[in-house]
């Protein structure tokens, strides 16, 4: 795509090296972005992308010999205050927002804090927030607490906050991971407008179609090293995947008939007013049922109802032929239902706790001995699932936050498999996970299905359900509006139905 960028970089880094605990996280990496350019920074989780961004924004200081050039001036390193003052902004994948504060306070936070003791000007805070949201073409109630909004709306708030002030370079780390197609299209339009106004945008996304659509160049990192810088013109998703991983992946439809298997779940006219209505389906042993649709279709609310977190107004659910009415999610767990939340950071895992504690937290009864937790049983349970799911860890006692997104997601899946469920509900299991780790997660899903586990796979990315589910249900405005067999429908047909 055409870019209004000149040849001279606005920001350039050369000879970037950094070591943590004897491990070289970055080795002789160079990177540059031009004013008015949309540039993609690509690589698997753990490749060094976040480390590089933290060096640019002054969180980390590189080893001696590094050279950072910004707007024609050279520096050996940055500081957070220095970088922010010069308009270098970052939208982190974990958002870093304040759930108890209002939307307006979250957006205007950096503009009104730290300027001496004075009365709070709520009118100015609202004005800043409304102006930022208007640039995104989004309308939100800025007076409501952030905690009342879904993760997709929180992502929009984080983007709006980054655009407050004089932004020169904006790093976007997985900005579309929780957005619908229409919201994504709107965001990409905003990105183009920012670039046209001279703002440099560095786009980090595991959705490679977006990378090709929005950026003019991409820098690829692998294992802390620079693979190269490439124009996106003529580039393909498979080629980017190969550059990022050093491997090739062949997407193929895994769908198969499970009609001869025993029915595990029967849902009949399940309704929760305002969220979903008249939802009916069956699910058999070893079957993976894909549910797709745009955000707001009621997919997550349906999953939470099946898991006992929400109560239906009418309709029935049968598990192994018996009607079930869950008073809580604990009752659902006891009945054999497991639910992997779409929000791994807040609901899926406890970031400050250890890998081991996160893995066993839903299975504490299995590691009791004489009414007390047994360290030996806990160790055995952790060792089993870390090995079975191929989780790459240092020590089980390390905080879960030390793992890459892909490995965190494997621990989250292991946590639920340890409960020995009959039904596993996976709600957007690859949010924030790179292409290599995604393939590994779906290999695990296939193996679980082959072992007889009934699985519901929820995703707003149609290719995920198309290649990994036996059947696909399309939800829109709280209803099932379509059912597809990947063996008889093309990917294009289903995408056209879902994305409209």
Automatic annotation (TrEMBL):
It comes from the Bacteria. GO terms for molecular function: ATP binding; ATP hydrolysis activity. The keyword ATP-binding applies. Pfam families: ABC_tran (PF00005). Residues 11-248, 253-500 form the ABC transporter domain. SUPFAM superfamilies: P-loop containing nucleoside triphosphate hydrolases. Keywords: ATP-binding, Cell membrane, Membrane, Nucleotide-binding, Repeat, Sugar transport, Translocase, Transport. InterPro entries: AAA+_ATPase, ABC_carbohydrate_import_ATPase, ABC_transporter-like_ATP-bd, ABC_transporter-like_CS, P-loop_NTPase. The keyword Cell membrane applies. Belongs to the ABC transporter superfamily. This is Lipase. It comes from Pleomorphomonas carboxyditropha.
């Amino acid at each position: 795509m055409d870019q209004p960028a000149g040849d001279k970089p606005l920001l350039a880094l050369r000879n970037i090296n950094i070591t943590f605990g004897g491990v070289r996280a970055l080795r002789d990496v160079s990177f540059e972005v031009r004013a008015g350019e949309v540039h993609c920074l690509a690589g698997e989780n753990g490749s060094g992308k976040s480390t590089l961004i933290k060096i640019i924004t002054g969180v980390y200081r590189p080893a001696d010999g590094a050279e950072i050039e910004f707007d024609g001036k050279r520096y050996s390193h940055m500081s957070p205050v220095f970088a922010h003052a010069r308009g270098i902004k970052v939208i982190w994948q974990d958002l870093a927002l304040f759930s108890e504060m209002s939307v307006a306070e979250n957006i205007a936070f950096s503009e009104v804090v730290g300027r001496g003791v004075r009365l709070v000007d709520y009118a100015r805070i609202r004005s800043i927030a409304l102006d930022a949201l208007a640039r995104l073409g989004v309308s939100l109630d800025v007076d409501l607490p952030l905690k009342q909004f879904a993760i997709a709306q929180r992502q929009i708030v984080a983007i709006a906050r980054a655009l407050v002030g004089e932004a020169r370079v904006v790093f976007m780390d997985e900005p579309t991971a929780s957005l619908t197609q229409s919201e994504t299209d709107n965001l990409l339009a905003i990105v183009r407008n920012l670039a046209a106004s001279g703002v440099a945008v560095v786009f980090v996304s595991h959705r490679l179609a977006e990378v090709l659509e929005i950026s003019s160049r991409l820098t690829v990192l692998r294992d802390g090293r620079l693979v190269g810088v490439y124009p996106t013109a003529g580039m393909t998703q498979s080629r980017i995947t190969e550059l990022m991983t050093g491997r090739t992946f062949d997407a193929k439809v895994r769908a198969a008939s499970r009609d001869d298997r025993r029915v595990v779940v029967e849902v009949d006219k399940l309704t929760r007013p305002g969220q979903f209505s008249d939802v009916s389906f069956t699910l058999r042993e070893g079957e993976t049922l894909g549910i797709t649709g745009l955000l707001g279709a009621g997919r997550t609310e349906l999953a939470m109802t099946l898991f006992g977190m929400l109560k239906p107004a009418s309709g029935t659910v049968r598990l192994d032929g018996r009607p079930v009415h869950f008073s809580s999610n604990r009752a659902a767990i006891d009945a054999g239902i497991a639910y992997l939340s779409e929000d791994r950071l807040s609901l899926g895992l406890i970031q400050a706790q250890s890998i081991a504690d996160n893995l066993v937290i839903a299975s504490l009864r299995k590691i009791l001995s004489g009414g007390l937790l047994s360290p030996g049983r806990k160790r055995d349970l952790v060792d089993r699932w870390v090995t079975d799911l191929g989780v790459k860890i240092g020590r089980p006692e390390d905080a879960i936050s030390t793992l890459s997104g892909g490995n965190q997601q494997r621990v989250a899946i292991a946590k639920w498999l340890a409960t020995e469920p009959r039904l596993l509900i996976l709600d957007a299991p690859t949010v924030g996970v790179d292409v290599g780790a995604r393939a590994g997660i779906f290999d695990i899903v296939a193996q679980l299905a082959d072992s007889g586990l009934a699985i519901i796979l929820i995703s707003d990315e149609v290719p995920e359900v198309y290649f990994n589910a036996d059947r696909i249900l399309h939800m829109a405005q709280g209803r099932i509006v379509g059912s597809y067999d990947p063996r008889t429908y093309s990917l294009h047909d289903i995408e056209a139905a879902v994305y409209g």
